[in-house]
């Protein structure tokens, strides 16, 4: 991850699926936003911990501050920045940029 962070112009999303007894992970990076990380549940939802919610409730200066911090915890800005690049999926056309062999 450190090697990828050294290239600030990159956009990327890396996910690790959860397995028995282990939460999944999601890492996102977008220019101007930096790196964001969260744990994910079995169905891919972002997991916000009890401690994160307690800290948020204790430090929010009002409803707008609270809502803004929830958006940060959920990675909303990274989702917005990366969404145009998520169009590929099963059955989508593939463009091979370079083939070895």
Automatic annotation (TrEMBL):
This is DUF3145 domain-containing protein. InterPro entries: DUF3145. It comes from Saccharopolyspora flava.
